[in-house]
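Trying the structure run again after the queue cleared.
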Amino acid sequence: MRTKISLTALAGGIIWLGLLAASRATRLELEWIDLLFLLAPLVIVPLGLGLTSQIETGGVASRVERIAIRIQLPCALAVVASFFFARGTLSAILAGMWLAFCGLLTLGAVVRIYKGAFRKLDSSFPAFAFLYLPVGAVWLIGSRFGLTPLGFQEPIVLLTAVHFHYAGFAAPILARSSRLALMRSTPSSARPVLLNLVAAGVLVGPALLAAGFVIGPRVKLTAAVVLAFSEISLALSFLFALKQVTNFASKILIALASVSVVFAMVLAALWAIGEYPLQPFVHLAGMARLHGTANALGFTLCGLIGWAQAQKCLVRLGGNS
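Done. Tokens:
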């Protein structure tokens, strides 16, 4: 199953590079934010599923998750096809294929919770990731339909879909990897408490930030700061965990991911602070370009590849709570 996931991510990466080249040659009308989103179903999600499978060598994945993995690439290709049509019914129907895939992962999360996923923090990470993903899929459908849910317009609608695919799905899986490495490396009684606090922020931060957009600027500011602090702390945990990584290429990728998320989250915090008095220090277009690129390519992509390679060299860590 892991081989299939790796091949899916590789195929998705080739397709994404083709889309990037075609858009740069002006043969496709794809904005940079469109490309950053499409990276998620084509590459980020299969990499995240692959890393989860590497960690859970005991066959934790349920049958419904295995079915989801089999249909992941066709559903991702349907999402790509939806961007070739104008916003409307056909585009939304194609994007709806991704919601079907995400729905299967949601059922997988329910199975995990039923089996006690929330009894241990380690097993909570994939459950949270799988529950966040369909929220992003719903916002994707809204974007492709041309809807303005809760009064939000583009690019906020698509950016919300991006948010739940990266901060919602990928960040918990990355947090799990660094936490496992650090729990293995130290006998310190204080470190698990700190790691659990960072993990809690990573897990609830995406939901808090989304709620802040609905509730009001004060909640949005608080949530953005909590999420930024949690992911900057996660970046520091990456650096501390490097002592457990023996593969040189993995060390470089994980270090790059750490630097990238610090840059991205500092920008996010500055944007949120500026949004509160409605005098933004960083405008939304700049945020989408700078924060989005650093978060998607630097933190998430490099982090997932780095930890996937590192995991091959780490002894399986079972039973950590």
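The two ends are 26 Å apart (CA to CA). Worth checking whether this holds up in the mutant runs.
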